[in-house]
Design brief:
- By secondary structure, this protein is mostly helical.
- It has three domains: 22-134, no CATH class; 179-316, no CATH class; 318-450, no CATH class.
- It is built from twelve helices and two strands, in the order H-E-H-H-E-H-H-H-H-H-H-H-H-H.
- It has helices at 18-21, 37-51, 58-67, 80-99, 102-131, 134-156, 159-168, 176-239, 250-264, 269-281, 419-428, 430-434; strands at residues 26-28, 76-78.
- It has a two-stranded antiparallel ribbon with strand order 1-2.
- Helix 4 (80-99) crosses helix 5 (102-131).
- The termini are far apart.
- Mean pLDDT is 82; it is low at 1-37, 51-57 and 66-73.
Length: 450
């Protein structure tokens, strides 16, 4: 549909009369739709922010708009003729006072009063709207009405006369002691009010302290995430070449392990879990098959790197970095923690679905209420699998020496533990571990012997 701006059938605008074009003597100068320079600058800043906003900070932007909204100010514009009339009325009032003429004085006074109130009325309305909410104005009128109602009730019901007659009969000299008692009671009430004010100050200070602590925690979380992001980028730049392939020479692997050890010791459990998931899904914790001469990782022909559990080399070897670590309640799904030292680590409540814990040292570790669905604790059959050994190499075909060390580990109330994993933990966990495994270990031999 085309809109023609110069159409001959367009309606003719109504002429604006001179009376309509001239505002009254007392007009609101700006109104609600005009902006002050500060308000215009604020709106421009908010418009720039809106261009960069994301769904995550929409609520924050709305709060900023409401906070920086320019106040609506009713500026009173007074016509020169109104000012002239007011000054003339003031002069007439002064002349009436000087001549002691009642007629001139009362006329000037009334005109001056009416014009002054007309000029002050918009300002008074603005002040009342700014300083008193509708609820405050309602309560004020209600209290004034209650006071007037009580006075009228006392006056017109005859109660005031009876109170006056009763007051004449009282011996006020004898009631001086009673006044002293009331004075003491007033001091007690003042002390109670002071205690209440002090208590309220304590509560407010406590709330402010809690809010400040929450802000500090949020700032620490943001700082930690920025540190982790920098670590991710640094590791990627360190081990990848320009084509995005692994080029981890011995020195690069050493530096990568040093960076990982440093950052794992400076972040909380949630940060550790993020780092482990990143390293695991990037195949940086998996033993990769290497070229015997160049030491580079070999592709498996289907878009990934070939694994070699027996003689492969890991880009980052966790070693003892997670010994005694607090990882309770974190997400460790599909992570490769094989051969890591998790002695005395707290894994209670963790999501360990499909995690690889073969040859992992879980001695004295806590795994209570953890989700062990599909977790790998060994290779081969559960009846032939055995824990890792310091001297004998692992056999990934039969499962000998490929299992995790689960002695003294706590498996209280673990979730979705498979029968093969239960058999292995009962056989190689020892008496302490056997007493914590859901379903019991009846009929399963204690191969550990202690």
């Amino acid at each position: 549909m085309t809109i023609e701006s110069n159409s001959s059938n367009s309606p003719t605008p109504d002429p604006i009369s001179e009376e309509d074009s001239q505002p009254d003597d007392f007009d609101g100068g700006t109104g609600e739709h005009n902006l002050t320079p500060d308000g215009l600058a604020t709106q421009q800043a908010l418009a720039a922010i809106a261009a960069l906003q994301s769904p995550q900070n929409t609520a924050t932007l709305k709060q900023a708009r409401s906070f920086f909204k320019s106040p609506i100010i009713n500026v009173v514009t007074v016509k020169p003729r109104a000012l002239l009339i007011t000054l003339l009325a003031i002069a007439i009032t002064i002349i009436g006072l000087a001549l002691n003429n009642w007629l001139i004085g009362i006329f000037g006074t009334l005109v001056t009063l009416i014009l002054s109130l007309a000029m002050l009325l918009p300002w008074l309305q603005t002040v009342i709207r700014e300083w008193f909410s509708p609820q405050d104005r309602t309560l004020l009128i209600a209290f004034v009405g209650l006071l007037v109602g009580i006075i009228g009730l006392v006056k017109f019901s005859g109660l005031g006369d009876r109170l006056s007659a009763w007051g004449l009969k009282i011996n006020w000299d004898a009631s001086g002691t009673l006044a002293e008692w009331f004075g003491a009671l007033g001091q007690i009430l003042i002390a109670i009010i002071a205690v209440y004010v002090a208590w309220r100050q304590y509560v407010i200070s406590k709330d402010l302290t809690i809010q400040q602590n929450l802000l500090t925690v949020q700032q620490n979380i943001i700082t930690q995430q920025q540190t982790i992001d920098s670590y991710f980028q640094g590791i990627s730049d360190l081990v990848l070449d320009e084509e995005g392939l692994l080029e981890d020479w011995p020195q690069e692997r050493s530096i990568a392990e040093g960076r990982t050890a440093a950052i794992l010791s400076s972040v909380d459990g949630s940060g550790k879990a993020k780092i482990l998931r990143f390293l695991s899904r990037s195949k940086l914790l998996t033993p990769l098959k290497r070229d015997r001469r160049l030491g580079r990782a070999i592709l498996n022909g289907v878009g990934g790197y070939a694994e070699d559990r027996l003689e492969g080399v890991r880009v980052i070897d966790l070693g003892v970095m997670l010994a005694g670590a607090d990882l309770a309640g974190t997400d460790l799904r599909w992570t490769d923690l094989s051969e890591a030292n998790l002695v005395r680590a707290d894994l209670s409540g963790c999501d360990l679905v499909k995690a690889n814990l073969s040859r992992t040292i879980l001695y004295d570790a806590k795994l209570g209420t953890a989700d062990l669905n599909g977790v790998r604790l060994f290779y081969g059959a559960a009846e032939k699998a055995s824990p890792r050994s310091r001297t004998a190499p692992p056999n990934y075909q039969t499962g000998e020496h490929t299992g995790a060390v689960v002695e003294n580990a706590d498996f209280t109330d673990v979730q979705r533990m498979s029968e093969s994993a239960r058999y292995y933990c009962c056989a190689w966990g020892g008496e302490k571990t056997r007493g914590t495994i859901p379903g019991g270990c009846e009929g399963i031999p204690n191969k550990l012997g202690r």
